[in-house]
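## Example pair
The file below holds two records. Each record gives the amino-acid sequence first, followed by its structure token line.
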Amino acid sequence: MENKQQSNGMVKENNALKKKANWSGSLILASLTGAFGSSFLYGYNLSVVNAPAGYIKKFYNETWERRYGFSVDEGTLTLLWSITVSIFAIGGLVGAIIVTPIVKFFGRKCTLVLNNVFAVAAALLMSLSLLAGSFEMLILGRIIMGVDAGISLSALPMYLSEISPKEIRGSLGQVTAIFICIGVFTGQVLGLPEIFGQESRWPFLFGAIIVPSLIQAVILPFLPESPRYLLLEKHNRSKAEKAFQRFLGKDDVSHEIEEVLAESRVQRNTKLVSIVQLLRTRAVRWQIVTVVVTMGCYQLCGLNAIWYYTNNIFSESGINRETIPYVTLSTGGVETLAAVFSGLVIERLGRRPLLIGGFGLMVVFFGVLTVSLTLQNTVHWLPYLSIFCILAIIASFCIGPGGIPFVLTGEFFQQSQRPAAFMIAGTVNWLSNFAVGLLFPFIQAGLQTYCFLVFAGICFAGATYLFFVLPETKNKTFNEISQAFAKRNKVTLEMQEMNHYPGERKSSEGQESNFTSSVDNGETKKGIV
């Protein structure tokens, strides 16, 4: 009995040591640096335009009057401001579309480094627009910043999923969501009147974008490229081994190398598939549908509507308008804390409970919020219930739906399919983002407070789909996840292997032999495709 207890204790201790060893210094630095110059800037640019909105509109009006001799009419000013805000999503869509050939040619890490050119160019254009007297520079800067965000929101999750051990892949993947929340919160803080939220200082809000970009551009080049990219796409075994050694913090990485090579043998070759090929592949049909659903719900779940209503709800609660910007910081704080909590528990609870539970809680709180907003003029304490519902909806979003869709996209697909999958996910993400910005004002005008029932319905539909379709991916290899979908895709394991590349099934044994030979020599052979 004592021996059994000692044995169990040793197993637990070894597991704890193994888990601790997974978090190497290089892995932590790569994830933090990558996210700070990427997803942080995405979150920052979502919130940074809110505080100086009045000053920017005044700048538009003054510029128009100086050029044409009369003030801009209200309709044109509203149109210019709407373009300024929504064109960020158009740039994001462009970035999501062009990311596949970029990550193929330059690699994941180098794509993140080079992407800073867009961020720095955008920051200079936007921060100098007031000095140059050109609102076109601000609009152009917003679309370029969108391109940066579209590239980074695909390249960063791809990079993180490929450098992390499967035991902590979910936690590391949540770094993307955590830094989005930190970026939103930072934009709120810097937009306070005491900092840059003044008429003469608002350009500094956009100039601050340069800081994370330069930090990433300086640090990230000294960290390794994705070892999976080096091994499967560049066929360089020696560099892949060195990358694994640095990221995992150990010398013996033979097990990890063999695991990746096993995936390559299943794939038969390492040629990247196109979007059309991916969509025609039966073995990943339900994975694609699941990514489309999760990414669509990520944008269409109503969080943007929450931001729209926040100031009005706080005002109805009796909070002074001068105090509202400071109270709004609570939303950013809750968002960040919830995302950190999700990152800490995702490897314990799994993806399914957090994602389905997050959408489920949003359905409940959207329903309560609808009731409280509708009746808030009849009961004096209902506005405070509305505030609680707002914070609860934000927290529910961030514990699961706010970050796990990016994690799943990296986990569902093999190496050669991943860039095309992220292009699909990014396209759905940015099109949904644009649709919300375009349609929400009409939904809000037509339904008033009942508009939240639309979002509750979307969350309910998403949760229901995921409950029946989504398998748990925690601690599973890419091949194991593919096998979990095999029955629903109506393919056997052998068919799954053949279906990775429709029309390219012949000579698989020779390709596999050539591939193994090439990676052993650490170089690319011409016969490899």
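Second record, same layout:
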Amino acid sequence: MSPVFPMLTVLSMFYYMCLRRRARTATRGEMNSRRAIESNTRALPINVEIVQYAKEVLDFSSHYGSENSMSYTMWNLAGIPNVYPSSGDFTQTAVFRTYGTWWDRCPSARLPFKRTPSTFCSQDYVELAFEEPVYPTAVHILETYHPGAVVRILACSANPYSQNPPAEVRWEILWSEAPTKVNGPQARQFTPCIKQINFPTNLIRLEVNSSLLDYYTELDAVVLHGVKERPVLSLKTSMIDMNDIDEDEEEEKFGCGMDTLNKQFSIVTLREWPTNGYFDKLPYELIQLILSHLTVPDLCRLAQTCKLLYQHCCDPLQYIHLSLQPYWARINDTSLEYLQSRCTLIQWLNLSWTGNRGAISVSGFSRFLKVCGSELVRLELSCGHFLNETCLEVITEMCPNLQELNLSSCDKIPPQAFNHIAKVGSLKRLILYRTKVEQTALLSILNFCSELQHLSLGSCVMIEDYDLIASMMGAKCKKLRSLDLWRCKNITESGIAELASGCQLLEELDLGWCPTLQSSTGCFTNLARKLPNLQKLFLTANRSVCDTDIEELAANCTHLRQLDILGTRMVSPASLRKLLESCKDLSLLDVSFCSQIDNRVVLELNANFPNVFIKKSFTQ
């Protein structure tokens, strides 16, 4: 045979693959505008483009602002821009709770879950509803301060204003990219190239990762461009981009991986091979170690190859630590049902962001925990809006060994349900940020959960008397190492005194935006003297913090690593120099809006203490 024929065969196969891929992509209506075909395509028929701002903020994971205010809250994303094109720190924008890596470098930091796919890096999200469902042609995000946090944009098939919810809710990624460092904090309009989808949407979700930012990102508005009729793209193309094939494989890997989880785990008929090759020569433990590096969808696929690997992929030892958060859009009752037999030994489980809009039912969640809850030590349920009192009751009954429970932003749980948590006396970490926990339930929890080491009560607005709560902590929670009282509205020097006297192991304390604390009462100097192990102290927006407080910290809290005194008018450069000289481990110092600390002082301190990140925010 002539050597030309094999080459022709290869070229034919390649051409067939490319055409097949083009046809498949076109039928889905998912041609990506970034790709090489865009210069020779046109939309048929021509539609009038609709431009609309977000009508409503439906859901979000965190925000800097208060639950009873509009300043720095996600609700500012609804409507027309308030700030753009201006740059700077403005209260009329939407701001998430964290930035940088500082929250990962403090005593309350949690260990990450293994097997998290490298493509999933989202830390926070916000979901926006628009008036008219459209086929998106563009999404404009108006960022007014420290841009670059948005890493993923998704569209949902469900219409939040429809009276008839769909049987199946589908999410599609319009755009996704790893976090990037943007030079400068100035405002910008971010308009990534989005792919086309085959359904109209008026529900857009932004996911962010702020780990590379020097300060809080601020978003002003989101603009959705789209057409009412589905665009049909012609296939007049003169060239094929080699990168398309790889990209398509990645899209299918994300899009189908968890969709087929249910089917793949239920497969019982597998082809039998006479031998398993080199796998027959490997110890069982070594194969388990190799497979431990695979993600959950990859385990699903591998389980279909042969009985040996099916056995390994279904071994409960592969599911000791399981995070389903990266696949939040595709997890449902059926997924949990098929995972049950494989999770009988599970110790860490992350269901954060999952189950919303009816994907996980109370009965489905309860059935799973009744089978898999006995060994659970850590349970992450952040933003689980399907949770109710029955779910908390099942958790406390079926998870007797539970030590860590995260209910952050589970704002649909009724207040009385939190009483059940008091039954879990082994708890060491409890996160109740943005929940409706009330005083009676919290007092019961503190009374019976004396092993608590980490407690987050940030933005818990239904607690009436934080002094009483602080007194109970001081009396019962002697092992407390970190405490978040962010935006606590009524704690006074009395509560701080009880807390400091009883919880002397505290290493982290967040008293940001607590307006009832006044330096003149001696509460901050008392903290400094009673809590020598402090590594992180946030006194954000407390205008009364003064030189005496800073000097007491310098004298007594030499292990201090992070200090936020944003907004104080009473701190001088001299006291900051004493602090920096005394606290050799200090790495973060936020002096934004401190009237006595101007840019010249910051430059001088940066020059003399280069290992400290000194933040000075501004407004134009």
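Notes on the second record: The first strand starts at residue 43 and ends at 44. The CA atoms of residues 481 and 506 lie 4 Å apart.
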